[in-house]
Write a structure and sequence with these properties.
The complex is a heterodimer.
Chain A (H helix, E strand, L loop, with lengths): L4 E3 L2 E4 L5 E6 L6 E7 L6 E7 L2 E4 L8 E4 L6 E5 L8 E8 L10 E2 L3 E5 L1
Parallel strand pairs in A: 2-11
Antiparallel strand pairs in A: 1-3, 3-8, 4-5, 4-9, 5-6, 7-8, 9-10, 9-11
Chain B lengths: L2 E3 L4 E5 L4 E3 L2 E3 L6 E7 L6 E7 L7 E2 L2 E6 L4 E6 L8 E8 L9 E2 L3 E6 L1
Parallel strand pairs in B: 2-12
Antiparallel strand pairs in B: 1-4, 3-9, 5-6, 5-10, 7-8, 8-9, 10-11, 10-12
The chains are: A mainly beta, B mainly beta.
Chain lengths: 116, 116
């Protein structure tokens, strides 16, 4: 079956523009995570959804970052008034959470955001 | 909060030789999961191997094996018979099983080069 897909793969935005990044998880996966990966760093957690509910948004760096998953499948990460420090790769991962000890997260290829 | 440390920013290995990547972590939990992920230039994060903390036996997956030292909080990855396709960034990651699906905590990564 298809894996996690993300679009666009690359996005260049001028400082101050709004951007929207899309994630299509594996069909049927309940859990969805967003991570931010700065250049030369490991991914860092941004936010987590279980179905349509955003259960954890503790990693969002500012109120300019907003994520949604209205129907419990596709998710969108929106960044308003982009700043240069927002330049990074944004990774999406999904996981089947039916099992109590479910632990494997499947990653998409990421969106590389460059803010000029 | 849990932290993951990878002290080797870069490593190199000759093709067909063996290399070990180091990882240490800090946690107060007794049950958790540890992972090694591979990230090639395509940015797709690929799971290499996982270890559950309650299992004393070290995990192995073909040419990949780990040395899990729970008391020392150490989780190294050994790659045997290295191949050119093993060249990538390798990330060590920690996950707490508490309260269902929780995010991964990543180290900063080790860039592995394979020399023909």
């Amino acid at each position: 079956g298809a894996g996690v897909s993300q679009s666009p793969r690359y996005k260049v935005a001028k400082r101050g523009q709004d951007v929207a990044l899309r994630c299509d998880p594996i069909s049927g996966h309940v859990s969805l995570f967003w991570y931010q990966q700065a250049l030369g760093q490991g991914p860092e957690f941004l936010t987590y959804f279980q179905n349509e509910a955003q259960l954890d948004k503790s990693g969002l760096p500012s109120d300019r970052f907003f994520a949604e998953r209205p129907e419990g499948s596709v998710s969108t990460l929106k960044i308003q008034r982009t700043q240069q420090e927002d330049s990074a790769v944004y990774l999406c991962a999904s996981s089947a959470a039916e099992q109590v000890r479910a632990y494997e997260q499947y990653f998409g290829p990421g969106t590389r955001l460059t803010v000029t | 909060a849990q932290t993951v440390t990878q002290s080797q920013p870069e490593m190199s290995v000759q093709e067909a030789e063996t290399v070990t990547l180091s990882c240490t972590y800090d946690t107060s939990e007794s049950d958790y999961y540890l992972f090694w992920y591979k990230q090639p230039p395509s940015r797709q994060m690929i799971l290499v191997i996982r270890q559950e903390a309650y299992k004393q036996q070290n995990a192995t997956e073909n040419r990949f094996s780990v040395n899990f030292q729970k008391a020392a909080k150490s989780f190294s990855l050994k790659i045997s018979d290295s191949q050119l396709g093993d060249a990538a960034m390798y990330f060590c990651a920690y996950r707490s099983p508490i309260s269902g699906n929780t995010p991964l905590v990543f180290g900063k990564g080790t860039r592995l080069s394979v020399i023909a």
